[in-house]
Write a structure and sequence with these properties.
alpha+beta, 2 domains, two-stranded parallel ribbon, two-stranded antiparallel sheet, NAD(P)/FAD-dependent oxidoreductase, FAD/NAD-bd_sf
Length: 200
């Protein structure tokens, strides 16, 4: 490796960009990737024969304010996309659009899938409050919580139970509980499973 001026670990979109900038600056650069494909979250791969899966290029999670500030991006103008992600579904199903605005999301759910989808989604969001506090996914510059610290985040027994379910259960357990109609809610169920996989 001593033949290189720079070594970039990871050929995701950030790694590929860094490698290109370094190479253009005249540095002899190598970009290493553990996967059999490049592009990271911007890649589309065939995980199961015949099923091409978009890893997460269309999912726009918010950047933690501390990271934005540390990178000096907090003074730049931003454009918040109206849509966070889209699930195209199959067999001619209409796309499920995951809007950033919760009211717009719930209105879309009601129009496309009915009141039971709105109720199920609202119940799932309420259920996820405890796990969200426990996991602290967008907390920066802090070590991960221990199991005891995660359980201590619970405000009551229902939040404690939800934290336990997230740690030791399956995303599909919650999806089955709140959106049990596998046919009517197929696109929404698929989107939530997709987001659960990418979030972890």
């Amino acid at each position: 490796m001593s033949d290189y001026d720079a070594i970039v670990v990871g050929a995701g979109h950030n790694g590929l960009t860094a490698a290109a900038i370094l190479q253009r600056a005249g540095l002899c650069t190598v970009c290493l990737e553990a996967n059999s494909y490049a592009g990271g979250m911007a890649a589309t791969v065939e995980l199961i024969d015949g099923f091409r899966y978009e890893i997460a290029g269309s999912v726009q999670f918010p950047t933690a304010p501390q990271i934005t500030k540390d990178l000096g991006l907090d003074t730049l103008p931003t454009v918040d996309a109206d849509v966070q992600s889209v699930n195209l579904g199959d067999n001619g199903e209409e796309p499920m659009i995951f809007y950033r605005d919760p009211v717009k999301l719930m209105t879309h759910l009601a129009e496309k899938l009915g009141a039971d989808a709105v109720t199920g989604m609202a119940e799932m969001i309420a259920w996820s409050r405890g796990p969200a506090k426990a996991l602290g996914r967008f907390e920066v510059q802090t070590p991960p919580k221990t199991l005891d610290e995660m359980y201590a985040c619970a405000a009551d027994e229902s939040e404690r139970r939800a934290i336990h379910e997230v740690l030791f259960g399956s995303a599909m357990d919650a999806i089955d509980r709140y959106l049990p109609d596998r046919d009517k809610h197929a696109v929404l169920r698929g989107m939530l499973a997709f987001l659960a996989i990418n979030s972890t």
